[in-house]
């Protein structure tokens, strides 16, 4: 289970399970990746729920 984060500056992929982990990124700096990871941690339950709903149907 993973999420893709896309913005004007670049993009990244983070695994949500078994734990949050940076998978890949393009054109994003370490500060931006840290900020993204913090947001994913704060919203992990919502992201997992949305992922399961989207892919279970």
> How many beta-strand elements?
3
Q: Output the strand order for the largest sheet.
A: 1-2-3
Based on CA inertia axes, which overall geometry fits? globular
> What is the C-alpha radius of gyration, as a whole number of Å?
11 Å
Task: Let me know the average pLDDT.
Answer: 96
Q: pLDDT below 50 for ≥5 consecutive residues: which ranges?
A: none
* Beta strand %: 25-35%
- The N- and C-terminal alpha carbons lie at a distance of 15 Å
**H/E topology pattern:** EEEHH
Main β-sheet, in a few words?
Answer: 3 strands, antiparallel
Helix content: 40-55%
Structural class: alpha+beta
| Total tally of structural domains | 1
Number of helices: 2
Summary, kept brief:
With 57 residues, the protein is of the alpha+beta class.
Could you explain how this protein is built, in words?
It is a single chain. With 57 residues, the chain is α+β, with helices and mostly antiparallel strands. The protein has one domain. It has helices at 30-42, 44-56; strands spanning 2-6, 11-15, 21-26. Strands 1-2-3 form a 3-stranded antiparallel sheet, covered by helices on one side. The longest helix has 13 residues, at 30-42. The protein is globular, with a radius of gyration of 11 Å.
């Amino acid at each position: 289970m993973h999420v893709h984060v896309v913005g004007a500056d670049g993009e990244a992929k983070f695994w949500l399970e078994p734990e949050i982990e940076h998978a890949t990124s393009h054109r994003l700096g370490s500060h931006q990746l840290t900020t993204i990871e913090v947001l994913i941690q704060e919203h992990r339950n919502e992201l997992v729920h949305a992922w399961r709903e989207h892919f279970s149907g």
